Amino acid sequence: NAGVTQTPKFQVLKTGQSMTLQCAQDMNHEYMSWYRQDPGMGLRLIHYSVGAGITDQGEVPNGYNVSRSTTEDFPLRLLSAAPSQTSVYFCASSYSLGGPSYNSPLHFGNGTRLTVT
Amino acid sequence: RKEVEQDPGPFNVPEGATVAFNCTYSNSASQSFFWYRQDCRKEPKLLMSVYSSGNEDGRFTAQLNRASQYISLLIRDSKLSDSATYLCAVNKDNYGQNFVFGPGTRLSVLP
Q: pLDDT exceeding 90 applies to what percent of chain A?
């Protein structure tokens, strides 16, 4: 029972490089999201998706793109990496009831630590 | 006012102590509340949901106060293994799964 799987675990990029952080879940969850976590800032929502083919921006979307071609996968693309994107990135998923979302917690992947030099 | 606020701590307590954390939220339309535990350099893991009537899971009790817009987490008989950062999560609006997280409260249980 894999849950939410993120790859890679660690990545170092140079400024201006691009890369894709992978996220896959095997729980048939409709909702998937990406957060970044920085010291003192807590978790901040980057992008989210409520189903295949549907994505939307969160609190801090600039510099990131996402797509959702399947229910299982939700990759996060950094278009041109900047030092400000140095962070820990978490993918999370949950079962979306389509109504009041009582007690549908987020399940997190184990994170990707990204350093941009 | 931030959407979700927590005292960052650290709370340093001896083993066996009872400790309580609060988390205040600004959106009165929020309906879903959770407590997560995060160990150093690990992902957040769900500790417990917070129900309107309050709920208990072993040594942990969660409560919701809608009038004052805060949730609380009480840990009784603290163990060394309870040392972690505790995050509260509140959904942004009445419908939907977008959550706002507090910055976390760090707990250290001392022998």
A: 81
